[in-house]
Amino acid sequence: MIQKGADENYKLAYQVGKAAQFPLFAPVEDTGKFVKPALKRSDQFNGKQILAATDYYTVDRITSEFQEVTGKSIRYVQVRPE
């Protein structure tokens, strides 16, 4: 989860290591890629769960793209499970 600190700096905190990959997609741009085939073959997809991801992002990629888009700095923090 990305959080903004009192010092105006951002951090990305998860319980997984930096090598973990997260399945992500952009809802506005990518939803149709998954909905269209489901509608065309509704007999196969009716009542089924559709898991959608357009790519797997590493922590480095997430933080790099965040900085590129927002111009804000961000750091990764691995937290311990409670």
TrEMBL record:
UniProt domain NmrA-like: residue ranges: 26-81
InterPro entries membership: NAD(P)-bd_dom_sf, NmrA-like
Protein's name according to its UniProt entry: NmrA-like domain-containing protein
Pfam families noted in UniProt: NmrA (PF05368)
Organism: Exophiala aquamarina CBS 119918
